[in-house]
Structure formats: C-alpha cells, structure tokens
Amino acid sequence: PQTIYLEDYTPFGWRIAEVHLTFRLAPHATRVLSRIRFDPAPDAPEQDFFLHGEDLTLIRAAIDGAEITPALSPQGLRCAVPDGSFTFETEVEIAPAANTALEGLYMSNGMYCTQCEAEGFRKITYYPDRPDVMATFTVRIEGTEPVKLSNGNPGGSGNGYAEWHDPWPKPAYLFALVAGDLVNHPGSFTTMSGKEVALNIWVRPGDENKCAWGMESLIASMRWDEKVYGREYDLDVFNIVAVDDFNMGAMENKGLNVFNSSCVLASPETSTDANFERIEAIIAHEYFHNWTGNRITCRDWFQLCLKEGLTVYRDSQFTSDMRSPEVKRIGDVIDLRARQFPEDQGPLSHPVRPESFQEINNFYTATVYEKGAEVIGMLKRLVGDDAYAKALDLYFDRHDGQACTIEDWLAVFQDSTGRDLTQFKRWYSQPGTPHLSVTEDWQDGTFTLTFAQHTPGQQDAQPQVLPIAVGLLGPNGDEVAPTRVLEMTETRQSFAFDGLGARPVPSILRGFSAPVVLERATSASEKSFLLAHDTDAFNRWEANRDLARACLEAMVTEGTEPDDAWLGALEQVVRDDTLDPAFRALMLALPTQAEMAQHLHANGVTPDPDALYAASESLRNAMAARWSGWLGDLRAACTVDAPYDPGAGQSGKRALGGALLALLTRLDGGAAAQAQFDAADNMTLQLGALGCLVQAGTEHAALARFAEQWRGDRLVMDKWFALQVAATAPENAATRAEALTRHPDFDWKNPNRFRAVFGSLAMNHAGFHARDGRGYRLLADWLIRLDEKNPQTTARMCSVFQTWRRYDNARQALMKAELERLAAKPGLSRDVTEMVTRLLG
Ligand code: DPP
Ligand code: ZN
C-alpha cells in the first residue's frame, strides 16, 4: 500500500463553487448524476485533472456538455480539461445493498444512509475527495422512500423526490444522504438572534419512545455553545438519524448528523445511566462540530486533531457543566490511561498530528482525539481562561469558511496572547507519554520541587512544555498554598515556595494538569494523608488509586495481604455522606487488570494475567469481608425513591449502590443481586444486578429471563452478549464468546454486535490472555472473517493486540503467531495490513 506524507501536501488545482447531485435510488443499482463547475485555482501548482472514485461504474462523463472517455483506475478518473473554467458531469452506478464496509452509500435494515468521513464520498461519485475542497451542494433524491434527507435546508419535494440545498461550503466528507421508512421525534430551538430552528430525530418505527433524551441533550448543547463559545446554529433545520449498522459512534454531517443507534436512542428501561451520559456527550460533540469541524474544517487529514481534539475538549467542558467537573475529569483520566497510554507506549504510537499514514481510518485514535483534547486543556491552563476565550473568538473570526492547519490554530493563540508557542507545538509532533519525576527539598521555610522529564522509547524527544498544577498542604491537612500552575520547559527544573512555617505535603499535578506519568517515590502514609485531606478532588482520587495499585502490586509480586491502613482510609471516604456518591463510587472502583498490567510493565515487572485476576478477586473479597458490617446499610441509603432521572444526582447514587452490591454479592452469593434484578424497573439496576450474578456464577435463570424480555431490542441484546463475556470468570471467557458466535442472534456483520462479543472478550483481561492462547486464536479467526466484509471495524479491533510485548515470552509468541496469521491472509485489506504491520514492526 501507498504511504501518504504530510510534507507532500499540495493544494488542488481547481475551485468548486457549486455541486449538483441527483440520486436515483435502487438497492443494487443506484444512479448518481453530478454536475460540477470547476474554476482554476490561481495559486495552485499546475497539475493533471484527477478525481477520486472507487467501486463506481461510470456510465457517462462530459465536459461542457460534450461526452468524454476518461482514463479510469481503481483510485479514480483522469482526463484532459480546458484551460479555464468548465462544467464536469458524470453519471455513475453504485450498489448500496452490496456495501458491507459501511463507507459511502450503504443500506441498514432497508434504509439508505451514508458515511463519508474520511474518504467515503469517492465511493459515491467522482470528486476531489479531500477536505480542503469546499463547495455548496444542491441535492435531489429520487425514490419511493417516504423520508429523504440530505444536508442543509429542505427545498422542493413532491411525488417521489426531495431536494436539499446546503448554503455553507463544505468538504465532501460532510455530505450525507438518508432515505427510508423513518419516523421523527420533533423539537425546536430559538437561537440567540431569534431564529427558529426545526429539530428532528429520525428513527425506525418503534423507536420513537427512545428519542426524548437525545432531543433534550441537543437543545442543551445548542444553548451551551451559544452561552460559552458564542456560537449560533446556522441552518433552518437540524436533523439527527439513528442507524443500526455504523462503524463509529456518530458523524457530524452538516445539518444531518448520523448516529450509531447505540449513541442516540435511550429510555430508562433499556439504557443505563452510563448510556444516558454518553449519549448526552456524543450529541453535544457532533453538534459542536458544526463550528469546530464544519464551518472551520481541516486542510488535510493529518490535521484531524484540529477538529477532534478541540471538539472533544468542548464536549468535556459541556459534560462538566451539566454534571460534576471533578467526576468528569477523573472519568476522562481513567479513559485516557486505559486507551491512549497503551497506544502511546506501544507499537501504534503516533503524534497527535501524524506525519504519514496508509489508511486514514486507522488514525481516528485516542491519541488524536483524547490526547488532542488534553493538549487544548494544557494550552488553556497556560494562557488562562480569558485569553483562551479571546483566542477562540479570533479563531472563529479569522478562519470561518476555511480549511485549516495546526499552524493556523497556534498562530491564533500566538497573535492573541503574544506568547511564543514554538516549544508547545512539540505536543503535536512528538509521540509518547512523557514521564515526570520529582524530588523535594525543605530548608529554612523554603520548599523546593525539582522536576525532570523524559519520554521512554523516544530517543529524539525534546523537553515539552508542562503545566504542573501544584498545591501545598500543611501538617494538619489545611491548604497552605493554593493551586499554582508551574510552567516547566526544561528537561530539569526547580520551583521554590517560600515563607512556609512547616514542611508541607505537596499535591502535584492537580486535576491531571498534563498527560504524563508522574513518578514520585512517596510513602504510603503520605498518600493516605492526601487521600484524607487533599482539597483537589482529582488528586484525592489519585492518591487512592496509587495506594490501590501499590496494594495489588504487592499482592502479586510479594504475596502480601491487602493493605489494612489503606482500606481503613478508603472506608472513611466511602462512608463520608458529605461527599458526592459518584465520587465515592469512583474511589471504590479498583484499577482494572489491564491498568495493573500497564503499571507493572512500567515498573519492569512482566504482568501475569492470572495472578492479577487472582489478586484483584482476593482484594475484593477482603474488602467485602472487612466491610460486611455496613455494606448493606450504605447500599440501602443509595436507594432512589423518585421517578427515574438520568442526571448526575440519581445516577451517582445508583453508581455507588451498584459498587456496593458487587461487594455484597461476595458475601451473600447473589441473593441481594437477584432481588434487585427481579424488582428492577430501569436498565441501570437490572444490568448492574445481572453483572453481579454473572460474576457470582449464578446467572443462568436471570440471563434467560433477560433474553426473553429483551429479545426484540437490538441494543439491549448487545448488552446481553457483552456482559456474559466481560463479567464471566476468565477460564470461561473464550468458551463463552465462542458459544455466543453460534447464537442465532449473533449478527457478526453488525459492528455493535461484533464488538459486544469480541470487545468484551478483550476486556476480560485474564480470559483474553488465557495461557493456552484460545482467546487470541478465537479473535484472530473472527478478524480474518470480518475483514472481508468490513475492514474498518476489523482494523480498529486489531488494536487489542497493541500491548502484546508486555507479556511473558510464551504469550508473546502466541500473539505474534496470530498477528502473522492475520498478515498472511490473502487479500487482506489495506486497513488491516497497515495495522498488523505496525503491530509487528
Ligand atoms: N468525525 C466523527 C466524530 O468524531 C468521526 N466518527 O464525531
Ligand atoms: Zn468528532
């Protein structure tokens, strides 16, 4: 496969004012007619006329009305064109019903839909399919489907046709078309300047009762973006469509967002609190893209973080405002460590702005998205909130309607703050997770912290700009120096705090102010002190997490008993009614076995998945036994006596109650869980109880009843598939996953269902890493099979092998053999070829 390089960028030789498209829909033979006016671009280098096009049957092509015979290749079309402006017309035929890759125009349950990001539009018609070519689109859809949607505002419609016009110039990746037998959940929003916008969530008949939350979240997002960023919506309508077969979470097509149904449909009976929160966040994310992504887009795909890092950052601000900022921050850091750290520290490591790729779909990663958002958070911490707000105003003013680069983004900050961001820019170009070590010194009332940074595995890494938020606590636990952001720019750098009466205890990297690994040799007693007293909620949680990791590490490597002192300190927090229940639930959650494997590996210890599983079980049993006196009462106190509400208040209580139930189950063999399961009137309680029963091994009847109750609900059945693989004992995981692949409802071509089984297998750490290699083999068998239908989802799932070099030689050999078996498969997709090559490289 060909490698594309950032440094090879050249602008397209023509400009497009307007695109006219006509679709004559038919499942196996859809005709797409396009008429495009091309004008020479004044500053572009001279070049051949080339349009992308893949899997298209060309019926006819013409320039200024005269038919031509262009040269065709599997990548596109080339032909001679006149010197000045000209009109280019094509008619192509495509087969959406045969499109299982779910890129371009495809069908899901009889409904037509599209996914064009990143390079799907070239599977619809011949076009310069690159984000820096922006044009207005006029679209006519002909077909018998009752609902026919595209971007922009509705135009004429009548018997068998509908027209749409999008007045905002956009790149082709934001094109969308949907047609089918759909029903809508309507809403409306009045913008800050008094414009009325019609809102709709379009779903399959039967799903109408699952749209209210999505609509509420959309309206909240629109209001928030006006209030916080001053951004107003710019069309007469905003449509969202739910699609069952979708590779990603959702897509921000202009005025017509398309969502994986799992990321928009919600009802209390069928969705958990976590689902509700995630839906709220994704609706916001896609809506926020209207400005950060659509009005201002990316020059090329290397700049993906320009829109994604910023939009993830914006959606995290939104969630913090809607819920608890502390809880959101802790959740984000858990997620960053679980998904981005392994990527950054393994063979898939790449900069936030990659410099080369073979298949861009492989770079929709946690590094581009989540580390990209961390970089924005650091920038804001460094320049301050007011300067950030000013810079964003300038960004929108200066670049509206343009396709931009990271250089443009940073120039806005440089120009509006006067700050030199040359060194800061390394965050976009240097891969790897920096490690930050710290030593301290105390003399004559002055406390000095000396930091050193280095990035393991990256020989060429230059020192990064690190905003290190630090506060100091006095011996009695009072804060003696409030949070101050230290700006570290050197490899080694000291910062002094003077005028102190007694040696303080430092609270370092508050709020996780930079995405680094903090290496600090602190005593357990100091961590317990921070756990008890830190005024920074994140660091309080972090102290607990450190203690939990240390405890599990000692249990695994030295065979010690669980740490009494820590459990005592943790108990205080968990039972402290003045604290947010959601925070207490997070404190109660142990590091996952995968997190422990990462931690041990960083400490030079080869992780043994079986030993990690055993230690985590025995720690949980010890917690349950030790706290048996109050677990039941505290759980009872978490009961919600009000109609279901997915907001932070109730869901925090249910989260704590659920964590306590999991411990109680270790004492009562599942009696309380069974009772909760039987009485549950919402999915959070029902699924939480079922998970406990699976863990206890007493789930048989409940699983059957659950399946009976929810047979007709695809999204709930995904949970049924996922839970039994994720929560079962490791020795059963692969067997169970394998058995589920033979279940009549295992529709493996549906990405959600495939991920339900195999994503969950990978999450069952000791089960996936079964010593005999069954887990690896089963997954590889299915990846080989799925690649023929859906390369994108297959490639995405390959990343579960990214940590393969952490494990013992025997497991490494087994994983390597499976990767080599995948690599050797004839006809392997470009997507998976690139992934496997990088994994093995
Ligand atoms: N651009 C999309 C998103 O992140 C990709 N699925 O929202
Ligand atoms: Zn996005």
From TrEMBL:
GO biological process: proteolysis
UniProt similarity note: Belongs to the peptidase M1 family.
Boundaries of every Peptidase M1 membrane alanine aminopeptidase domain copy: 213-427
Lineage, uppermost ranks: Bacteria, Pseudomonadati, Pseudomonadota, Alphaproteobacteria, Rhodobacterales
Reactions performed catalytically: Release of an N-terminal amino acid, Xaa-|-Yaa- from a peptide, amide or arylamide. Xaa is preferably Ala, but may be most amino acids including Pro (slow action). When a terminal hydrophobic residue is followed by a prolyl residue, the two may be released as an intact Xaa-Pro dipeptide
Annotated protein name in UniProt: Aminopeptidase N
Reported cofactor(s): Zn(2+)
One term of GO molecular function: zinc ion binding
Pfam families: DUF3458 (PF11940), DUF3458_C (PF17432), Peptidase_M1 (PF01433), Peptidase_M1_N (PF17900)
Record domain Peptidase M1 alanyl aminopeptidase Ig-like fold: where: 432-520
Record key words, sorted: Aminopeptidase, Hydrolase, Metal-binding, Metalloprotease, Protease, Zinc
Domain annotation Aminopeptidase N-like N-terminal: ranges: 94-174
Source organism (scientific name): Salipiger aestuarii
CDD domains with a match to the protein in the record: M1_APN
Domain Peptidase M1 alanyl aminopeptidase C-terminal: 526-840
Known EC number: 3.4.11.2
